[in-house]
Amino acid sequence: MSLIIIGTVAFDAIETPFGKTDKIVGGAATYASLAASYFYKKVKIVGVVGDDFHQDDIDTFTKHGINTEGLQIKKGEKSFFWSGKYHNDMNSRDTLITELNVLADFDPIIPESYQDCEFLMLGNLTPQVQQTVIKRLKNRPKLIVLDTMNFWMDVAMDDLLETLKLVDVLTINDEEARQLSGEYSLVKASRKILAMGPKYLIIKKGEHGALLFHEDKVFSAPALPLAEVFDPTGAGDTFAGGFIGYLAKVGTVNFNNMKNAIIFGSALASFCVEKFGTEKIINLTEQEVAARVQQFVNLSTFTIEA
Amino acid sequence: MSLIIIGTVAFDAIETPFGKTDKIVGGAATYASLAASYFYKKVKIVGVVGDDFHQDDIDTFTKHGINTEGLQIKKGEKSFFWSGKYHNDMNSRDTLITELNVLADFDPIIPESYQDCEFLMLGNLTPQVQQTVIKRLKNRPKLIVLDTMNFWMDVAMDDLLETLKLVDVLTINDEEARQLSGEYSLVKASRKILAMGPKYLIIKKGEHGALLFHEDKVFSAPALPLAEVFDPTGAGDTFAGGFIGYLAKVGTVNFNNMKNAIIFGSALASFCVEKFGTEKIINLTEQEVAARVQQFVNLSTFTIEA
């Protein structure tokens, strides 16, 4: 049994009001697999890089017990590169450079050793590639989580709608939920989106936490108020990785476990933004994670006496 | 022992995407006192109206057990009037008309029968009038809650800072917390604001809930996701009234009771927005309020097993 995470493995150059980086390792699958590795030991990555991606970079995955057999390395080609600059409020950013490189014709390979997949995280990529991964698995995983973004709603809505029929959980942000559904109210949006295929919808609201919708139930998870958000890059992917990693660990998919999974994902994401790139989430201890989760418990617990 | 609520008692004309009203009764003290009356029976209002405010309008308070001895009625003058139009997202609005009328030279009168005040809610008004009320009370109440807005930060910041030194709890929204502190991060903003006087700071985030800061503690309260927000007018005042009404009922001021007070205040506010003006909050049953509070419990409860 294993957890497959597919998504970009890339280089990012990030500028925030606090400073800027050279090319550092990033990408949705990078953040998500590192986050998941804190909860589950059989994480397997699917992605593609160029030969500018060095052994050191791959070692980071290996040290976290992440299987990289499904990470294709294209000789003579370059890895996906993204560069962006965050505004002062850290809630908006400008993309400075996007070089697709190896991602332009990415054809995901699922190694035979990955066919024991029980949990599948489809990180943000073209809906067609996401769909291809599902079709290349011989057995349908117990849980398929899909992350996407407004860009695919703009340019590949039909493919996205087809892919949504095949998944169990969709994670998007509030603006994307509004765009996908055509509804401003998130309650109305959730009803329309749950009718598109997913049984669970997670709406990420950044500094305002997250909402989980399932049937007629809703759960509101808080975000940890932070004095300093240093670099938001990868927070959503870290959330998704922590979320599915926790579910893979507990093994049973239900509303209660999903609520907890959201808290664990949020805790990992709250670490992610404290330093540039993956710097903070490659060196966490179990104790740090447990203490952060306890902060979320303290943050949101109240006891109403009847 | 009693709870005094001071603030505007006014007429509003409201336009939303769902419809528009003629002049209806509104004002911060109206919403807050009605909300408080669901939890506490000795609510006393301080305000001023013109003789366009009819006996029927006063009867609404009386029916809820609200003492109106401190509500001045100015013969031959007109009540404060506000008219506004909400945009499609319901999060922003244009003020169409503001007629101060009797509010222009409001001198709050504290009847002798109000001198048993233990809980004091200073609704949004000029900081000087708010301060006058504190000074006219012979004994300092056990708890003073102050609500204010960006307008007073623009035109009367010095007065506001003086008044803040005298209160226990400040309720403002996230943009106002940023303006008052000069800090974007709400954690940093809270530290600066708590150094200005208040021991507790409540930051209202509308559809994203509320944050309570006290010493080094923080509590995040969810907002109930609603399919339809019909009219947001008065939601903040309803929240504040429910909040202090609940505290007056339990009598003891501490962090735990404040957390519950925020949930009860949020529950009342979630009713407020379901109809125009005060229409929904003048006719609630105890059972409806209890069921709504239970929705907040269900919405935010999770159980992490160690």
UniProtKB/TrEMBL annotation, chains A, B:
| Entry-linked PROSITE patterns | PFKB_KINASES_2 (PS00584)
Q: Which domain of life is it from?
A: Bacteria
For this protein, the record's InterPro entries field holds: Carboh/pur_kinase_PfkB_CS, PfkB_dom, Ribokinase-like
**Gene Ontology CC annotations of this record:** cytosol
Q: Which residues form the Carbohydrate kinase PfkB domain?
A: 20-279
Question: What is an example of a Pfam family matching this protein?
Answer: PfkB
Which UniProt key words apply to this protein? Kinase, Transferase
Q: Name one GO molecular function term.
A: kinase activity
Which PANTHER family does the record cross-reference, listed alphabetically? RIBOKINASE, SUGAR KINASE
What name does UniProt use for this protein? Sugar or nucleoside kinase, ribokinase family
Species assigned in the record: Pedobacter hartonius
